[in-house]
Structure formats: C-alpha cells, structure tokens
Fold this sequence. Notes:
alpha+beta; Beta Polymerase, domain 2; 3-stranded antiparallel beta sheet; 14% strand; elongated
Amino acid sequence: MDNKLKAILSTLSYADIFDYPLTKEEIFLYLISIQKFSKQDIYPFLSEKNGYFERKKEFYFLKGRGEIIEKRIRRKKESIKKLNIARKIVRKISFVPTVKFIGISGALAMQNCEKEDDIDLFVITEKNSVWATRLLLVLLLRISGIYRSRGDKNVSNKICLNFLIDSGQIDFSKKSDIFTAHEIVQIIPVFSRNSGFRDFVKANSWTKKFLPNTSVKYIREEKDKFYNPLFKFFLLKSEKTARFIQYGYMKKHITKEKVSQNLLAFHPFDYRQYVLKEYRNKLKKLI
C-alpha cells in the first residue's frame, strides 16, 4: 500500500474513534505520518475511488460510516456556544498572577461536543504553584456557579479544570504517542502570560513526528500587572497549605486521576489507553 494512502487511512481511522469525519483540508492538517507530504501529494488520493473511505458533501470518512456527518454538524453548533462561554470565563479568571496559560482542550477544542458536555480547560501555572492556583480558580468558578463539582449530574457548560501543570513540567515527550500529540496540537489558546504558550509549544515540538502539518496560532502575550508580584508571592507561600487542604479531600476519591506536586489530571477513565487500542485495531483491519 502506498505510504500516502496509509497516512490518509491512519488519519481517518483516528478521527473515526471520535465520530469525526474530516474535510480535505483537515485530513492534510492532521495527517498522521512520519513523512512530510505536501497537499499535491495527498489530494489526488482523495479523488480516487477505493474500498477504504468515502466522501459526502465536504466530508471524508471510513467506508460505511456516513452517519457521523450529521453528528459532527450537530456537535459543531453546540460547540460554538460553549466556546463563547469558555472564552468569557477564561477572561474572568486569567487575572490570577500564577496562571501562565489557559487553553480549551478535549472535545470542545475540536468543536465536537454534545449539548450536555462540560468545558475542559488546560492550565499552566508558575513553578510550584499548581495547588494554590487551583484552589483560587475553583473558588472563583464556584462563586460564579459554573464549576463542575464531583457528583454533579447536570454538567452542561460547567467548567472542568481537568488538567493543571506547572511550567517546569510542560514537556510531554515521555508520553510521545499520537493521542498525546493530538491533544496538544488541538488545544485552543485563549490566554497566555509571559510566553506561557510559546514555551509550551517549544517544549512539545516532538508532536511534529506524528503530525507534521499542524501549525500554531499564537495569541497576544499578556504582561504582569502592577499588583502581580505581591499577589504571586502570597500564592507561592500558600502552596503547601493549599495542597494539604485539597489533597486531604481528594485522596479518598482518587482512582485513576493523576495527582502530584506539580501536576493535577482529573480523568478517572484512562481515555489515552482506550483511544490507542481502538486506533491500533482499526489500522489492523484496514492496513
């Protein structure tokens, strides 16, 4: 099988796990390949008839999976509403001086959310300030009535701080696989302070080994406000206390969540392993 066709099938197979048909431009953008191909290399293969994938409207999908088109269209409408909410919330909480970066992650970053879904945020903090930062952000979101708490039955449009990490831990190369690479490149940057987002992108340039065609849309970098040094000093000094308070509550509920001094990842279901297994199974059937 031609390597270009393999790359296209790999890309469509990965997207299919999420019921996500792709446009021609998206196939090229998210092309999974160890080689760098141009549009002129890839697009001719999309015009050829074959027994692997089909096209309807502007979308491409694995053969027999045309029903996911309507699902994507519906989810995009819902996601646009959630993106507007997310951006407004990020602007409200970004004044916390130990926050270096906030981005929209997960399904919403790909505009692939259902109406009942929550909103996932990815947060990078100053070194050794993950716990104090989280405590303050949770308080702000609770006051606003939009924080997703453990046990909430209705989580639609509520904010989930599902991943917080400090700026000393932003290199994810030890988990270099297609899932981690995709999750990183699809993050929508909303707020960045003092090169927080640029540093994150630079630390994870390894993603190009999996997704060579992805590009980064940089945003305007914010500078520290006049009150930040004192506020930041207070938060850094309260880190141990914040960790003691929060971990005392969390430890009885921890299952597969990842909790450490510099990283908080709140996903009890290991979606990474599930996606990688599904991806391998789809490729075995096709290639």
